[in-house]
Structure formats: C-alpha cells, structure tokens
Amino acid sequence: YFNAFQMPWITDLAFALGVFLAAAEFFLGIAFLFNFFIRVTSWFMLAFMVFFTGLTFVLALTNPVTDCGCFGDALVISNWETFYKNIVLTVFAIIILIYRNDMPCLVGKKPRFVLGSLVIIVYAGLVFWSYNHLPIFDFRPFKAGTNIPDAMKMPEGAPKDIYENVFYYKNKNTGEVQKFDEQNYPWQDTLNWAYENMESKLIQQGYVPPIHDFTITSAEGENVIDFFIYDKNYVFMLVAHNLEKSNRKPQDKINNLAGWAMGKGMSFICLTSTVAEEAAVFAEETGAPYEFFNCDEITLKTIIRSNPGLMLIKDGTVIKHWHYNDIPTPEEFEKEFAIEKP
After folding, report:
1. What's the rounded Cα separation, in Å, for the pair 32 and 89?
2. Which CATH architecture has domain 225-336?
3. Number of helices (H) and strands (E), helices first, in the chain?
4. Where do the structural domains in the chain lie, given as residue ranges?
5. How far apart are the C-alpha atoms of 331 and 342, rounded to whole Å?
6. What would the pLDDT profile of 298-315 be if each residue is shown by its tens digit?
7. CA-closest candidate to residue 240, choices 152, 327, 157, 179
8. Nearest CA to 27 among 94, 84, 112, 96?
9. 29-53, pLDDT tens digit by residue?
10. Which residues neighbour 135 within 8 Å (Cβ) at sequence distance 6 or greater?
11. Phi, psi of 209 (to 5 degrees)
12. How many CA atoms does the CB half-sphere of 147 hold within 13 Å?
C-alpha cells in the first residue's frame, strides 16, 4: 500500500504497523465478543471503521492493488467487496455505540483482566512464532502437498482474458488524431488516415492459475524450471528474494546442508531476484557452493516469507518449508525423510 500510494519513505515501518493494526483488530474483536470495556472500545471501533471504510472506497475507485489483503491468502476479496463488507461492519459499529450502555459485560471485573492478559500473551506468542519460524497455517499456493506443474496449468475450457483494442489514426488532411474501436477503424483508407498507435484494455480477467509467473532463469537467460519441477529426486530450493537483506547467520548451516545434498546427487539451488553480479559477490563472501537462479520477487515472497527460507520439492510436489532459523542438519534431514546412509 505504501508503494502504491507513493510513500516509500515509510515502508521500513510496514512490519511494525502491520503487527499493530492486526493486534488492534484482534483486541477490538475480543472486546466486542465478550462485551468488556464496551463503552470505550465502541468509540474506537467506530473511528476504526469510518477510517477504513473511507480508505477502501478510495482503493476501490483507484485500484492501486488488486485486493485488500484483509485476510491474507486465506480469503482473497476484491477492493469493492472489502468496501461493502466495511459498510456492513460500520452499521453494526454504530448500533453498538448507540446501545453501549445497555450491553452488560459477560465476565466479571477480575476475569475480564485475566482474559485480556491471556489474549495479549497468546497474540504475542503467535506473532513471535510466525516471525521467527513460519505461520502455523499456510494458505499460499506453494503450501506443502501442492503439485507445482498441476497448479501452473490452465484447465480446459477456463475463461481467458478479454481485451478491448483501441486504435489511434491520424487524419492526413487535418492532422487530427482520432480514436477508433475494432469495428470502425479505417485501416483500408490509407489515403486519408495514417496509423498512429494501438492500446489494449483488459475488460474482463480470465482464469489465473494458483501458481503463475513462476520461472527459474539461469545466468544465460534460459528458463530451466522443468529441469527441477520434474526431478524425481529431492530438490532443495533456497529462497532469498533479496540477497543483500537476507539473514547470513544460518549461512554455514545452509552451506553444510547444500554440500551434503549435492554430494548425495540431489539438486540444491538458490532462487533470488538479485542480479547475477551481486549473487556472485554474495557467493564469494559466504562460500555458498550452490548455483543461483533468478525468479520474480513477488513469487519468491509467495513461496516463503523468511529471507532466506528453504523449500523442498520432489517430482514437482512441495514437501516442506523451513524458516532460516529451522534449517535442518544433514542428520536431521536423513532421519526425517528416511534417507539411507552409505
């Protein structure tokens, strides 16, 4: 959102603000559910909903991002759907504010503070775990059990994108440039009209596969994705969407696992959006023994949130993900996946 609204100067605060916003929503929801501190929280809820209803209306009109992200990958809804949802919630917030003095708290004063403290502890624990490891629930397209080739396919008969072409022709007599559609553009009248330009406007979006824009590009510019997603053996994909910002603390552990895996005949590669020259510098500084390939940064962030993170696939199917704090040792991997020792 900050990038969409031309506010890059505040992007460093995105994580902290995201945690604060989610916490505020969570606490307000619990307060409404049990009717505690309702005289105060009802005002906060109404102010909260008025602000975000206005914001989502602007988003729906301008569409700087395709969806609101309210529910993450668990439920993707459009900006207009988000706006309508907020209208309904605002109505409920107004009703609760009006009748706040007639809504008794469902728990006593002491249990109220115990419950509030418990909510804070549980929420803080979930945030800590999800940030330092991986989220408990994974709703992303690359979740464990997903077959990547199947998730990239277009089903037979799936709706395709519908575009409207607009043609611009210049009148040779007057010098005026006019706009035409596909039904009436003067392509045959070369005596009076000269072609200037054409624009294609998306009218209706077709089916989009769960996994799209996923390529594995070599330093030579070749897409070698098939070599890895159809490999019958285990394939380790180290995902580092930005090598400069990636955490280097587990690098020795990663290098150890990579050396062991490649010694066993398994593929171990790094997917990054960092250019080849910078990747080469990174490899020299860290002693990374694996090869680097380029991939779209957004796709990499979709695969795994940690930077770096590790994804294991076999025959195109995602087996498991690891946060950089949980990278396994060769011995741990052998034990978990029953790899026979020589």
Report:
1. 12
2. 3-Layer(aba) Sandwich (3.40)
3. 10, 8
4. 8-132, 162-204, 225-336
5. 13
6. 999 999 989 999 999 999
7. 327
8. 112
9. 888 887 777 888 889 989 989 998 9
10. 305
11. -60, 150
12. 7
